[in-house]
Amino acid sequence: MPKNDTFFSNKLIAWYLQNRRMLPWRATSNPYFIWLSEIILQQTRVAQGLPYYLKFIKAFPTIEALAEAQEAEILKLWQGLGYYSRARNLHAAAKYVVNDLQGEFPKSYKELLQLKGVGDYTASAIASICYGEPTAVVDGNVYRVLSRIFGIETPINSTQGIKDFKLLAQELLDPSQPGTYNQAIMEFGAQYCVPQNPYCAGCIFNDHCEAVINNKVSMLPVKLKKTAIKKRYFNYLVVLSEDRRTLLRQRTQKGIWRQLYEFPLIESVSEVSMTQLKSMEAFKEFSEEIPIEDVYLYNDEPIIHKLSHQHLYTSFWIVECLEAPPDAIAISSMDNYAIPVLLENFISNFSGMKN
């Protein structure tokens, strides 16, 4: 298929106008709402992200409201979406727009890149959809569509691949309606040219698709192997006192779940037994602070929580005591704290934490 004519863009846009999903952020050109939807949908499917988008625009109907919110409130609303740095960057960017730009949202691709957490893809999406700037988006959906239709085998996560796909996307962009075109190619990748088992026989491009012609649909796009997955072993100490209080501590160090709350944690190099846990220096120090009555393991097998580059093998140790330390909180107040979804699932399943 030629890369410099309008056949591709015209056909794609025609398909989109007939088949697009009616999503709330497509009914507005307000850059705040578009930006919010794009940040939420990074690393997130539409079905999962939509309820969060609706919650956020209800809680923070303007960028000023988002800027004035407490970080803890934002993290609580974000709970369950993962990649929490997105929420912190969202808050920082909102404060920058309100305090440094007098509430005026950036109006160009280059200006949008100055917002924390906004990269090439998000800046291109907002600039094209809200301001009609002819700058092409390239995300996972776009990589997949272009690599298959044009038979490109350059790895999409290589330096050369990132450059080549951006150039091709820009060449194919319809400059007269860049926002519609960008939404069309993303929608086509999300709804039709899907990662596994796409329905190629009914595809609007099947007569021109190099991957179909050469039987390479399942081989494209090409991606370099990821970094090896790291295994970590988490031992959470779940304090339960007679007056129904427990301990939560905020993660302040860099890395996963920064600023979220969790039970006291002891990390080990492998799975540990009760005897091994009690012999660890961290547990001995913990037991000096709390008059422990009993300790037992909640889950016989570690719960494996999978993150992008690490798997957490998690054990929940129930620590019963007569009296909790002064900084303990009521179990009934735990809903007020932003916690990782791993802990949220445990709390919802463990009867000792239910009100």
Helical residues, percent: 40-55%
Briefly note the structural class of the backbone: alpha+beta
Task: Look up the CATH topology of the largest domain.
Answer: Endonuclease III, domain 1
Radius of gyration: 24 Å
CATH architecture of the largest domain: Orthogonal Bundle
User: Termini, distance in Å?
Assistant: 62 Å
**How large is the share of residues in beta strands?**
5-15%
Apparent shape = elongated
- Strand runs, count: 9
Mean pLDDT: 94
Taking pLDDT < 50 over at least 5 consecutive residues as the criterion, the unreliable ranges are: none
User: Which assembly state applies to the chains in this document?
Assistant: single chain
What does this structure look like?
The chain is α+β, with helices and mostly antiparallel strands. The chain has two domains: 7-219, Endonuclease III, domain 1 (Orthogonal Bundle); 230-353, Nucleoside Triphosphate Pyrophosphohydrolase (Alpha-Beta Complex). 42% of the residues lie in helices and 13% in strands. The protein is built from 15 helices and nine strands. It has helices at 7-19, 31-41, 46-59, 63-68, 71-78, 85-100, 109-112, 120-131, 140-149, 159-172, 178-191, 210-213, 274-279, 281-289, 341-349; strands spanning 230-241, 245-246, 249-250, 261-262, 265-268, 292-297, 303-306, 310-321, 329-330. β7 (303-306) and β8 form a beta hairpin. 31% of the residues are buried. The mean pLDDT is 94.
